[in-house]
Amino acid sequence: MTWLGAVPAWFWWLIALVLVAGGQQYRVAAAENNTATARGQLADYRLEVAERDRRAMSQARTEEQRRQAVADEEGESARKKLEVAQGRAADAESAADGLHGEIKRLRDGHRATCDTIATQQRQAGTSAVVVLGGLLEESDRMAGSCAAALERSRIAGLACEAAVDRMKGP
Question: Roughly what angle, to the nearest 10 degrees, separates helices 9-113 and 119-168?
């Protein structure tokens, strides 16, 4: 018998069991090491993503604030231009009132200068002056309101266009 035969069979089973258990223990330790490494990498990745998100949010917030500042600045500029336009419209209205007064004075003067001998001529002339004066007053009033509306529209359009151009950036 050889020395191998002298070793009992249960001992061989014990050696096999120890070898298998040791191999499994090695595999578990390697898996735990891999898990710890993966967890560390995951934590690093999460930090990296969080930092990227924070930077992106900061950039978006900065861009939003820049655009809002541009819109506010253009809005203020448009408001100032509208105030100037409204002042001009008030001046034009004042001038139109003066013209209306002049037309009224001319009408009254025309009536006073016509003598009673030329009654038919005066009536025809008066009706023409009255009609023309009324038409002039009405067209002047409408032109003033149209001019004011067009000026407001032009200022608003230019302000909007300038805001969009400035928001696009350099």
Answer: 160
